[in-house]
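Annotated sample (chain length 153).
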Amino acid sequence: MSGQRISGKSFDVRIMGFLVHVESMTLDIEDNTTVAKNKGVPAGFIEGDVAASGELVLDISQFNLLTTAAAAAGSWQELPPFPIHTYAVGGGAVAENMAVYADGCKMKISSLLNIDPTSTDKSTVTIPYDVTGEDFVKINGVPYVKGAGFGLI
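Output written by the structure step:
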Protein backbone atom coordinates (compact mmCIF):
# COMPACT_ATOMS: atom_id res chain seq x y z
CA MET A 1 0.00 0.00 0.00
CA SER A 2 1.14 3.50 -0.64
CA GLY A 3 -0.08 6.90 0.30
CA GLN A 4 0.79 10.51 -0.06
CA ARG A 5 4.53 11.00 -0.02
CA ILE A 6 6.41 14.09 1.17
CA SER A 7 7.14 16.71 -1.48
CA GLY A 8 8.32 20.29 -1.41
CA LYS A 9 4.70 21.37 -0.93
CA SER A 10 4.51 19.33 2.28
CA PHE A 11 7.02 21.44 4.22
CA ASP A 12 6.22 24.19 6.66
CA VAL A 13 9.05 26.55 7.55
CA ARG A 14 9.33 28.58 10.75
CA ILE A 15 11.82 31.44 10.83
CA MET A 16 12.11 33.59 13.95
CA GLY A 17 8.73 32.27 15.06
CA PHE A 18 7.03 33.27 11.78
CA LEU A 19 5.40 30.61 9.63
CA VAL A 20 6.95 31.52 6.27
CA HIS A 21 6.02 30.29 2.81
CA VAL A 22 9.23 29.81 0.84
CA GLU A 23 9.41 29.76 -2.93
CA SER A 24 12.41 27.49 -2.42
CA MET A 25 14.86 26.61 0.31
CA THR A 26 18.13 24.73 0.51
CA LEU A 27 20.29 23.54 3.41
CA ASP A 28 23.62 21.94 2.56
CA ILE A 29 25.99 20.29 5.03
CA GLU A 30 29.72 20.18 4.38
CA ASP A 31 31.43 17.45 6.40
CA ASN A 32 35.20 17.34 5.96
CA THR A 33 35.64 13.94 7.58
CA THR A 34 38.23 12.09 5.51
CA VAL A 35 39.97 8.74 5.17
CA ALA A 36 43.12 8.23 7.24
CA LYS A 37 45.86 6.37 5.39
CA ASN A 38 49.03 4.52 6.33
CA LYS A 39 51.42 4.36 3.36
CA GLY A 40 48.51 5.06 1.02
CA VAL A 41 46.26 2.33 2.44
CA PRO A 42 43.00 3.27 4.21
CA ALA A 43 43.34 3.00 7.99
CA GLY A 44 40.18 4.46 9.49
CA PHE A 45 39.06 8.04 9.29
CA ILE A 46 39.82 11.49 10.61
CA GLU A 47 36.92 13.53 11.85
CA GLY A 48 36.83 16.85 10.01
CA ASP A 49 35.18 20.17 10.59
CA VAL A 50 31.60 20.77 9.52
CA ALA A 51 29.70 23.69 8.07
CA ALA A 52 26.17 24.21 6.85
CA SER A 53 24.60 26.90 4.70
CA GLY A 54 21.66 27.41 2.42
CA GLU A 55 19.37 29.84 0.68
CA LEU A 56 15.82 31.00 1.15
CA VAL A 57 13.88 32.40 -1.78
CA LEU A 58 10.90 34.43 -0.60
CA ASP A 59 8.23 36.41 -2.39
CA ILE A 60 7.81 40.03 -1.34
CA SER A 61 4.99 39.43 1.16
CA GLN A 62 7.03 36.79 3.00
CA PHE A 63 10.21 38.88 2.77
CA ASN A 64 8.33 41.71 4.48
CA LEU A 65 7.78 39.46 7.54
CA LEU A 66 11.56 39.32 7.97
CA THR A 67 11.81 43.05 7.24
CA THR A 68 9.67 43.65 10.33
CA ALA A 69 12.17 41.67 12.43
CA ALA A 70 15.12 43.51 10.85
CA ALA A 71 13.50 46.86 11.64
CA ALA A 72 13.06 45.82 15.27
CA ALA A 73 16.76 44.83 15.39
CA GLY A 74 17.83 48.17 13.90
CA SER A 75 19.06 46.93 10.51
CA TRP A 76 19.42 43.79 8.43
CA GLN A 77 23.02 43.38 9.59
CA GLU A 78 21.98 43.66 13.24
CA LEU A 79 19.44 40.87 12.89
CA PRO A 80 20.74 38.19 15.28
CA PRO A 81 21.19 34.56 14.24
CA PHE A 82 17.93 32.63 14.49
CA PRO A 83 16.79 29.02 14.21
CA ILE A 84 15.05 27.68 11.14
CA HIS A 85 12.62 24.79 11.69
CA THR A 86 11.25 22.84 8.76
CA TYR A 87 8.84 19.96 8.99
CA ALA A 88 6.63 17.85 6.77
CA VAL A 89 4.17 15.04 7.37
CA GLY A 90 3.09 12.55 4.74
CA GLY A 91 0.15 10.22 4.92
CA GLY A 92 -0.86 6.75 3.88
CA ALA A 93 0.00 3.29 5.16
CA VAL A 94 3.65 4.19 5.73
CA ALA A 95 3.75 7.62 7.34
CA GLU A 96 6.66 9.80 6.26
CA ASN A 97 7.81 12.58 8.55
CA MET A 98 10.76 14.91 8.17
CA ALA A 99 11.87 17.60 10.60
CA VAL A 100 15.06 19.61 10.19
CA TYR A 101 16.32 22.19 12.65
CA ALA A 102 19.19 24.55 11.81
CA ASP A 103 20.57 26.49 14.79
CA GLY A 104 21.76 30.07 14.71
CA CYS A 105 21.21 30.94 11.05
CA LYS A 106 22.90 34.22 10.15
CA MET A 107 21.44 35.63 6.99
CA LYS A 108 22.45 38.14 4.39
CA ILE A 109 20.65 39.32 1.28
CA SER A 110 22.18 38.41 -2.08
CA SER A 111 19.54 39.04 -4.71
CA LEU A 112 17.31 41.91 -3.67
CA LEU A 113 15.98 42.95 -7.08
CA ASN A 114 15.59 41.23 -10.42
CA ILE A 115 13.27 43.46 -12.41
CA ASP A 116 12.01 42.21 -15.76
CA PRO A 117 9.10 44.30 -17.05
CA THR A 118 8.07 41.51 -19.46
CA SER A 119 7.86 38.81 -16.77
CA THR A 120 4.68 37.61 -15.11
CA ASP A 121 6.58 35.78 -12.35
CA LYS A 122 6.33 36.91 -8.74
CA SER A 123 9.17 39.08 -7.53
CA THR A 124 11.43 37.23 -5.11
CA VAL A 125 14.37 37.94 -2.81
CA THR A 126 17.20 35.45 -2.26
CA ILE A 127 18.60 35.20 1.25
CA PRO A 128 21.69 33.05 1.81
CA TYR A 129 22.41 31.99 5.38
CA ASP A 130 25.13 30.22 7.34
CA VAL A 131 24.42 27.92 10.28
CA THR A 132 26.41 29.33 13.23
CA GLY A 133 24.82 27.75 16.32
CA GLU A 134 26.33 25.10 18.57
CA ASP A 135 23.36 22.78 18.02
CA PHE A 136 24.22 22.94 14.28
CA VAL A 137 21.68 20.77 12.42
CA LYS A 138 19.26 18.18 13.75
CA ILE A 139 17.44 15.77 11.47
CA ASN A 140 14.27 14.31 12.98
CA GLY A 141 15.63 15.30 16.38
CA VAL A 142 18.98 13.56 15.87
CA PRO A 143 22.05 15.83 15.96
CA TYR A 144 24.30 15.71 12.91
CA VAL A 145 27.36 16.53 15.02
CA LYS A 146 28.28 14.50 18.10
CA GLY A 147 28.19 16.62 21.22
CA ALA A 148 25.45 18.83 19.77
CA GLY A 149 21.96 18.62 21.14
CA PHE A 150 21.98 21.02 24.00
CA GLY A 151 19.01 22.98 22.60
CA LEU A 152 15.31 22.37 22.40
CA ILE A 153 14.89 20.17 19.35
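Annotation: The CA atoms of residues 86 and 134 lie 18 Å apart.
Annotation: The chain has a mean pLDDT of 90.
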